[in-house]
Design brief:
Strand content: 35-45%
Shape: globular
Number of strands: 8
Structural class: alpha+beta
CATH superfamily: Electron Transport, Fmn-binding Protein, Chain A
Order of helices and strands: EHEEEEHEEEH
Radius of gyration: 15 Å
Length: 153
């Protein structure tokens, strides 16, 4: 059963995000009510009450986010990290300083619920690796931009 934990990122989720290896699933809805899910890997905490992420400006999830504003982001990670974050999205930088096709979005947290189960625990989240040296450089640069913005926004 879901347990509401408030508007502040729990310590275990905050630690997962700061490691810069999380993958989250962003859920949005179109103007026609069609659901869309998007894996997001460039996501970083903005204090304890917000998130910053980068997303391609042509992605359906981004277009839905700009129209609808309300989003849900699901996190699963090692150490039984299992949370869904409900928030309001707003574009803070378009385009990103790092890449002209990426935009930076801030999510102001409205509510967080724990999705931990009494039957199973999350021992490991989604593991990922870069597809090329260039991809790693881009990812590192995007995280650098998010980390800098998390201190200055």
């Amino acid at each position: 059963m879901a347990k509401h934990v408030g508007v502040k990122l729990p310590d275990d989720l905050l630690a997962l995000l700061k490691r810069k290896k999380a993958i989250a699933v962003l859920a949005t809805f179109s103007e026609k009510g069609i659901p869309n899910t998007t894996p997001i890997q460039s996501i970083y905490p903005k204090g304890q009450e917000g998130l910053l992420l980068t997303i391609h400006k042509e992605h359906t999830g981004y277009q839905n986010m700009v129209w609808q504003k309300k989003v849900m982001i699901c996190f699963l990670g090692e150490g039984n990290v299992a949370y869904s974050v409900f928030g309001r999205a707003g574009v803070v930088r378009a385009p990103s300083m790092v890449h002209p096709l990426m935009n930076v979005v801030r999510i102001d947290i409205i509510d967080i619920k724990s999705d931990r189960s009494i039957l199973v625990r999350v021992d490991q989240g989604v593991l990922w690796s870069h597809t090329s040296v260039e991809a790693e450089e881009l990812t590192n640069s995007l995280f650098g931009e998010l980390e800098e913005l998390s201190k200055t926004l």
